[in-house]
Amino acid sequence: MQINVSTSEETEAILGRLSQRFSLSSKNILMRIALTYSLTRGRKLHDNKPEDTKGNPYKEITVVGHYRSYYVALICQFYGIYKTDSDIPKYFKLHIDDGLRQLDKLFSESSNYNLSDFLLEHIERGIDSLEQAITTNEAIIFDDSVRRIKVSNKGYFEGALKLQLGNDLNNGEPIFATINNTNVHNNAHIAVAGNSGTGKTQFALEILRQFVEVSSDAVNFIYLDFKGLKKDDVAALTPFFEKTKLLLLMLRKCRFRSIRCRLLIPLMKKTKSWASINWSILLQITRILAKISNKPSVMPPKMFFKI
Fold first, then answer.
1. Is the Cβ–Cβ distance between 96 and 7 less than 8 Å?
2. Which range has the worst mean pLDDT, 52-66, 139-153, 169-183, 289-303?
3. How many angstroms separate the CA atoms of 105 and 151, rounded?
4. Spatial distance between the Cα atoms of 31 and 15, rounded to a whole number of angstroms
């Protein structure tokens, strides 16, 4: 979706007048100021029809530059819509036209009021609003309609992922954490640190096992082991494979950033429907690793025959 905007005949004339008055060599600055000024006035233009396009056409790079995501976010927050909404380009035009008319009126009524005064005044207002605003670190929860747009044809686990992370050294009581509780955690990233042989891998595998157990087999994952497994390692991990119903795939030897990797092992969680697995993503992962290692990528045939 490209955000290309064609001004109306009236607003193109306003752009020319204001650019000349403030000695601006490019009109894109005024277009962005007009867009945000119109939004700050709080008037939604749902029912407005875009004006004529007899002015000049402007490409997306001129309208938003390299800050597309920020301007799209402003529109989305203002109208409560998702970033793929097809009306976003329409709202850009409506608010740019509206903002230019408002700016033209404002500066026409105050001949001594210049663009620097305008910007400083509204920047100060914005800072004051931020200082008074109530913010939260909670994750944004989308409603069902937005969720269907964002992740199509994919289920999700809504229950609490309460995992045992260990035991209290003083009294032996188990220590639990509900990692997807957004009232406590803003995200569910986990980092495990420790010296070699202290049990980092075993801890990670235990967490993955609990994922499967607590979610009743609903949470899927991919596990990559760059060190490789020997036959004894595979035998020792067999109970883990069985409990989590994993598919073990052995990939070819590779060189990764000059460090010898004996095996690349993705452990892919089996699901009720193999069609739900995005095999193209796994293929891309392998190709990227192969590109880094300057070797051709080879996907083992059994990966495909296993399905």
1. yes
2. 289-303
3. 45
4. 8
* Residue 268 DSSP label: E
C-alpha 218/C-alpha 212 separation (Å) is: 7
Burial class (CB in 10 A: 0-12, 13-18, 19+), 31: buried
Q: For residue 145, what are its two tokens? A: 């309609």
Q: At residue 207, what are phi and psi to the nearest 5 degrees?
A: -65, -45
Chain segment 42-72, per-residue pLDDT in tens: 888 877 777 788 888 888 888 888 889 989 9
Give the separation between CA 98 and CA 100, rounded to whole angstroms. Answer: 6
User: Which has more pLDDT, 47 or 80?
Assistant: 80
Cβ-in-10-Å burial (0-12, 13-18, 19+) of 282 comes to middle
What is the rounded distance in angstroms from the CA atom of residue 120 to the CA atom of residue 123? 5
- Copy the structure tokens of residue 44: 């939604």
Q: Give φ, ψ of 123 to 5 degrees.
A: -65, -40
Convert the pLDDT of each residue in 87-121 to its tens digit.
Answer: 899 999 999 999 999 999 999 888 888 888 888 88
